[in-house]
Amino acid sequence: MLYYKTNEEIELVRESSLLVAKTLAEVAKAIRPGITTIELDRIAEEFIRDNQGVPAFLNYHGFPNSLCISVNAQVVHGIPNKDELKDGDICSVDCGVVKNGFYGDSAYTFALGDVDAETLQLLKVTRESLLKGIEKAVAGNRLGDVSSAIQEHAESFGFGVVRELVGHGIGRHLHEKPEVPNYGKRGSGLVLKEGLVIAIEPMINMGTKSVVHEKDGWTIRTADRKPSAHFEHTVAIRKETADILSSFKFIEEVLEKNINTKVTY
Ligand code: MG
Ligand code: MG
Predict the structure, then answer these.
(1) How many angstroms separate the alpha carbon of residue 254 from the centre of ligand 2?
(2) CA 250–ligand 1 middle distance (angstroms)
(3) CA 223: distance to chain centroid?
(4) Which residues contact 217 (CB under 8 A, 6 or more apart)?
(5) CA 141 to centroid of ligand 1, rounded, Å
(6) Does pLDDT of 264 surpass 90?
(7) How far, in Å, from the CA of 231 to the mean position of ligand 1?
(8) C-alpha dihedral (132, 136, 142, 146), degrees to nearest 10
(9) Burial of 61 (0-12, 13-18, 19+ CB in 10 A)
(10) 253 Cβ neighbours under 8 A, 6+ residues apart
(11) What percent of the chain has pLDDT over 90?
């Protein structure tokens, strides 16, 4: 079942997605070598609740926190903990909220301090892959056009595109149909129609595309322990160009002033 949203419903998804964007900007203000990921989680949960939202990931299938925080070789679904972030780490922060009955979902990978050039390029290319996919997310195109645009860009740099985890429809539920893979064939799959709202979220590995589950039952990491990056936007399908409902603007305004992070775009 595909749920096509009215304009009123899309505005509610936008409100939730912008709360996610502003929450990630609060994370951007605080993130630095020496901070623990559980502290970032606390900052995010407080900000979400102060803005009349509810953290979407907290208790989702038993997930224990408000943010998924995945460091270095961790791909996604990392559990915040008391370990301190270090100079040279990359840190993917994934955030979801529900407000007024509608969900928003977005993720950003931060570079802390002295990150090596190859890893900075991985972040840049992953962010670009997301935007290449979004460019194709317009009415009349097919889902495979979005997927292949992401895959082709990432693989042109020799990076691995994770297969096991995919983007998704979003609205009254965090995860709705359709699945939005980050790999696929141009001209294949579902024809996109106005009103469909999807979360597009490339997970791109520096090395092999293969991933494994950590023993905690949640964390996914790269099989070769090389770094992985993750960027995500919630977008509505429209006729001419996709309507990006989340935003990196608030995050990146902060990053430009934060001496502890590297700007990678
Ligand atoms: Mg997400
Ligand atoms: Mg998502």
Answers:
(1) 23
(2) 17
(3) 20
(4) none
(5) 24
(6) no
(7) 8
(8) 10
(9) exposed
(10) 25
(11) 96
Q: How far is the CA of 239 from the centre of ligand 1 (A)?
A: 25
Cα separation, 61 vs 84, whole angstroms: 26
Tell me the ligand closest to 167's alpha carbon. 2
* Displacement of CA 5 from its chain's centroid (Å): 22
CB 200 within 8 A of CB 187: no
Would you say domain 7-262 falls under CATH 3.90.230.10? yes
Output the CA 57–ligand 1 centroid distance in Å.
9
What is the number of the ligand closest to the CA of 200? 2
Give the E-state strand segments of 72-208 in sequence order.
74-76, 90-99, 102-112, 160-161, 167-169, 176-180, 197-200, 203-205
Which residue has 């009215």 as its token pair?
6
pLDDT tens per residue across span 118-162: 999 999 999 999 999 999 999 999 999 999 999 999 999 999 999
Ion ligand 1 residue ranges (Cβ < 5 Å):
94, 105, 107, 232
